[in-house]
Write a structure and sequence with these properties.
Length: 191
């Protein structure tokens, strides 16, 4: 079997008017579905074959807004569902400019949870779906979303983890190549 890390992806500007950039790759899924582990594996793989890549997580608990979210998630504060939703969105907004700069400079961002988790979390608590999407309009849209809908037990029973990682790497490399070849940035839920 061929080692997929030896595969080369072709990155060449198809159109000189298009800007090469990094890819915005988001992993979503249930708790304990392996998102964080897969993010780390993807980051390591991309870096090992020469791509500039970073791993980000939302909520980002290192920011001022993130610290309020952290207090809520650790039951140290009690916030209204609307308030926590807006804080989760604000946490993504406070990182948006830096995300765009990184992407435009050629750095691929692997994101462990993003806007989809925030909207799903709040709408599952009974908030109106359209209301939940509204503060997300204008955030950068991912180039690829990988939703891990599988329990660790199911992975062990069905498919060796190496095969899962290989498939994820293949999908992400195709996306990274498209972005390096000039795919434009887009925004969430554009009207």
């Amino acid at each position: 079997m061929e080692n997929d890390s030896s595969k080369k992806i072709e990155v060449s500007a198809l159109n000189p008017n298009l800007q090469s950039r990094g890819a915005l790759v988001v992993l979503e899924g249930l708790d304990r579905s392996g998102k964080s582990s897969q993010c780390i594996q993807l980051l390591s793989h991309l870096q090992s074959i020469g791509f500039s890549a970073e791993l980000w997580r939302f909520p980002d608990r290192n920011t001022a807004v993130g610290q309020m979210i952290s207090a809520y998630l650790s039951n140290q504060s009690n916030l209204d569902d609307h308030t926590i939703h807006l804080l989760l969105s604000a946490n993504r907004w406070e990182k948006r400019s830096m995300m765009e700069e990184k992407l435009k400079s050629g750095t691929t961002l692997i994101i462990d949870r993003y806007s989809y988790s925030g909207v799903a979390f709040s709408s599952a608590k009974g908030l109106d779906f359209d209301w939940c999407k509204a503060p997300e309009i204008g955030l950068l849209a991912p180039d690829m979303v990988l939703y891990l809908d599988i329990s660790p037990e199911m992975v062990d029973a069905c498919l060796p983890m190496e095969e899962v990682q290989k498939k994820l790497r293949e999908y992400v490399l195709e996306c990274v190549a498209a972005c390096k070849n000039g795919r434009a940035l887009s925004h969430f839920w554009s009207q």
